[in-house]
Amino acid sequence: MEKVADIASDIGEYIRQQRSNAKISLRQLSKLAGVSNPYLSQIERGVRKPSAEILQQIAKGLRISAEALYVQAGILDLPTGGPVGDAIRADTELTERQKQVLLDVYESFRRENAAAKPEQAAKAKTEDQVTETKESA
């Protein structure tokens, strides 16, 4: 039960931060999201844990990815990409389509680099062996 309270607190704090970053008042967000002012306040304070549907409405009001809120609420697993992916998802200046394209390109670069690592390691090992052979000769 304690973990649920922590998640509610975490999602509430995250929503408060996003609202503050967007320079939107609690009343404005409650109107944009179609939820009551007291209910939104309870969510931000961690008293209530919102449903996925309410999170989606809040995300629309904040103009952020619903996925970001789902991750914070523990509904979805943390996507790959680390802080760069999080920054892309949190950027309020990008559309959802633009965010997805950037994330796709970023992930393709990460996969490409991960695939190249074993090759680079094997090449470096071969070069080290050649250098050792030359030094011992």
Briefly summarize what is shown:
The chain has 137 residues and is mainly alpha-helical. It has helices at 2-21, 26-33, 37-45, 52-62, 66-73, 82-90, 96-136. Helices cover 77% and strands 0% of the residues.
How would you characterize this protein structure?
The chain has helices at 2-21, 26-33, 37-45, 52-62, 66-73, 82-90, 96-136. It has 7 helices and no strands. It starts with a helix and ends with a helix.
Rg over CA atoms: 22 Å
Q: What is the helical fraction, as a range of percent?
A: over 70%
Order of helices and strands: HHHHHHH
Tally of strands:
0
Sheet having the most strands: none
Structural class: mainly alpha
Give the averaged pLDDT, no decimals. Answer: 82
pLDDT < 50 stretches = none
Gross geometry: elongated
- Our count of helices gives 7
Assess the beta-strand content as a share of residues: under 5%
Give the N-terminus to C-terminus distance in angstroms.
69 Å
Topology:
Elements: H1 2-21, H2 26-33, H3 37-45, H4 52-62, H5 66-73, H6 82-90, H7 96-136
Keywords:
137 residues, mainly alpha, elongated
